[in-house]
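User: Hi! I'm working on a homework problem where we have to compare a predicted structure to a textbook description. Could you give me the structure for the chain below?
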Amino acid sequence: MNKKDKIQIKVMAMNMHMEEIIEFLNELLAENENLKKQIKELQKQNNHN
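Assistant: Happy to help. Predicted structure tokens:
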């Protein structure tokens, strides 16, 4: 295996990790939106009381 092959394998591994990180960040963003909605709902309920 030459140097170019080793570099390509490292780049592929980095891309896989980046895809996992992006997927995780998207999950966090979705959860954040859910929490924002829950907070708004709780604030509405609190204002009615």
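For your comparison, note the following. The radius of gyration is 21 Å. Residues 9 and 15 are 10 Å apart (CA to CA). Good luck with the assignment!
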